[in-house]
Amino acid sequence: MKLLIATAMSASIALGTVPATTAATTAAPVAPTVATTAQVGPGFAFGTAWYPEQWPEARWDVDLALMKAAGFNTVRIAEFAWSRMEPAEGQFDFAWLDRAIAAATKAGMVVVLGTPTAAPPAWMSQRYPDILRVDEEGRRAEHGGRRHFSFASARYRGFATRIATEMARRYGRDPRVIGWQIDNEVGPPSFDNEAKVRWAAFLQRRYGTIAVLNDRWSTQYWSQHYDTFDQVPLRQTGQQNPGLLLDFKHFQTDTWVDYVQAQAGAIRAVADKRQFVTTNTMFWNAGFDHFAMHRDLDLAAWDNYIPDGRPDWVANGANHDLVRGYKQRNFWLMETQPARVDWVPLNRSLDAGQTRELAWQAIGHGADAVLYWAWRSALNGQEQYHGALLGPDGQPFPIYDEVRRLGADLSAAAPALTGTAPVAKVAMIYSYDSRWAIDLQRHSRDFDPIKQFVAWYRPLRIASQGVHVLPVDADLAVYPLVVAPALNVLTRPEADRLTAYVRGGGHLVLGPRSGMKDDANALWPQRQPGPLAGLLGATVDQYYALDAAVPINGTYGDATATIWAETLKPTAPDVAVIARYGPSNGWLDGRPAAVTRRVGKGRITYVGAWLDPAAMTRLADGLLRQAAVAPILPGVGPDVEVAERRGAGRRLLVVINHGVVPATLPLPVGARAIAGDLAGTTLPAHGIAVVALDQAGATKR
Ligand code: GLA
Ligand code: GLA
Question: Could you point out which of 299, 626, 645, 665 has its C-alpha 20 to 30 Å from the C-alpha of 163?
Fold first, then answer.
């Protein structure tokens, strides 16, 4: 689908899927990648959340002029303004919003409208307390914060879809409105009676009969046997069956997807197809399966915050790659901080230059929009100390100039960025079920699945300069290397797909704890990696939580294991042991820590230990060499990030110096800087460069 409109300001907006472009290049095939989400005005959405309802109308034009001067072309509005849009039950007032949209348009902005359902009005909380969220201890939320509604409340759904419908009736065919954000960072579940009824119905849909549930959850254990679905407690924590606890996550996913889709459906029933429908999410948020959430949304959008103000750029890159993976398509950065947040114990500001630098990082990883939160310090309300572009006096804070500089970069680079999307030859598999299953029973408190994911991502990203994060059921064939760091939950159909990938010539690398459980969180009745044990030709004999480092030696040199170690046992004659444990607890001593097996043109490798960072780097380098994956721009320093966006016949590098000293860029012949700070071949501290590669002179990947 490709949809185009022209706004009153003749900004053109394209939304939707543009087929992967085959850039004229001699480079080896890279993963197909789909550009692009939206092009606004200069080809890129750049702007801010704006809360006109918080300020006198006489001020609006001043704000909008300052936005325009910063280079903004987009505002997101209305996402908390329910009490203003529906001041009394069933009475709607959009006149102020009409005027705000008109003012924004006059200043050259296009508009993203938020449905206000994260912040229901006080009349609703008072008249219908049954809509209020109940926490796991049975306490009902009160008015005054946000997200105080129950995700299961049918009455709340009714109110939410009604306001969404009213908004869509008014603005769904309005060319000034380019898209919709549903709610705002949905997430916390509710444990009210309606949720309990919905839970029983969910389990019935999932299992059909109670006998199947009893079987899948092994409820003969501790006399848990259930006669009916409504006997099953609604719990997300505590001494409960792991099957129940994992299914609670599935229930949360199901309910939140349904909640968001109820509003999406209400909007789409009325609105033009050119308007996108999304919701804004929080990176590793464990509240629901984000792949499932995005299946029926038009684009992924997320809110990137660096709460401690000390960015770990590689880890933050993984956040973006995860979000790109939701739809395997470019995404929107719906919110990001002007310098600082206000919701952690110590809200350190980013250093000068880093706000701009992080915007470019998002773009390198596939963002087609960067919007700030917030525009101006609200005089009161819970977020008075948050980073903003303007102070309470309405004058720019120091960060404003940095953002304006970004606006200048973007107007230079946007035409080239249009129609491009990030490329990668390495894929990493992220599985919500696996993450939840491990978090529910870490066994070693330090086995944080996100830290473990990033421990693999870090050396792979640094060495390859491009990693896509994908769900386990994605099409993997184009990636010569696929790494699943801890694929704890693995179903038979998923194992079959992975087997086909290996037989097709790919290299699948599994990390510890892989292939242990099915999707009811039950142990596979065969040893790890369960349904992949035959393909691997080896099994995990035993796993050990570690409280001290264990020596390892092998093909990739000497290493140590911490946190987790598994002993492997080859069952097929053609399995090669690539690492063994040294002396430690007697059980591990001399036993295989990692094995690999060639399968046709492909390969499967299992690494049973959490390795130290230096060993991970050597391992990643070896795996990439074996897969013939070279860096896009070799020879850059350790603080320099390189990302490539490709499409529409163009190859662009986004290069960022995250460091505090200048870096030298070994650019290939024919490379041409089109935006940023490059002086000769020197990139200053916190400097960025957008570089167009000459197709002929482009480095061969
Ligand atoms: C206690 C209980 C057992 C079992 C063990 C596990 O001893 O009586 O049922 O839970 O702990 O260590
Ligand atoms: C989230 C919310 C915003 C705001 C910011 C502050 O991203 O979506 O409304 O509260 O946090 O960091």
Answer: 299
